[in-house]
């Protein structure tokens, strides 16, 4: 049973390939839906792992957009979205707690633990303030630092604008512990695309028609 569940985790060697595959997942398996901002295509939950995440990824540089909607271009530099910046801020200071430092101290003292979890949720906070990223999990296995990011929902058209900054958090914790980082695992409970973005997504998927699974 455990082996079957592990095989359900999709794996890609780059953030760009993972991004295209998740777009295709929602595009092909999604259904019409709504959220507070309008019509969406809502896909089934997905879990995947990525080995390499960098702003220099050729697929992101060619087909990605920055948070303000401008093309990265050949000389452009990626940067996190405003939502990703707010989420990362919660890792450093959520009700006065530096949760990244807490994780480092816990794993240094108890490297076998499965308790190194960070929650970004605050009970009963205003709906429009609740983050899409709800938790990070860190664990040390086979002398490697593993990290899982859990999203309650995500507009996957811009998902990579969160993935690369989160990889930087994993690299920071790994460096503090003197360990190599493993792949970054991502779980999205409700991956979706806005109907307003479908023409752009269609152009990207047409430009990259081949399956992108490693």
The sequence of SSEs as H and E is: HEHEEEHHHEEEEHEEH
Mean pLDDT: 83
Q: What is the C-alpha radius of gyration, as a whole number of Å?
A: 17 Å
Number of E-state strands:
10
Structure explained in plain terms:
The protein is globular. The chain has helices at about 1-5, 15-30, 60-65, 80-90, 100-110, 160-175, 200-205; strands at about 10, 30-35, 40, 45-50, 115-120, 135-140, 145-150, 155, 180-190, 190-195. The longest helix has 18 residues, at about 160-175. The two termini are about 25 Å apart. Helix 4 (about 80-90) packs parallel to helix 6 and helix 5 crosses helix 6 (about 160-175). With about 210 residues, it is of the alpha/beta class. It contains seven helices and ten strands. The strands form two sheets. Strands 1-4-9-7-6-5 form a six-stranded mixed β-sheet. The protein has a four-stranded mixed β-sheet with strand order 2-3-10-8, covered by helices on one side. Helix content is about 35%, strand content about 25%. Residues about 1-5 and about 65-75 have low confidence and may be disordered.
Short overview:
This protein has 214 residues and is an alpha/beta fold.
Brief descriptors of the model:
214 residues, alpha/beta, six-stranded mixed sheet, four-stranded mixed sheet, 7 helices, 10 strands, globular, disordered N terminus
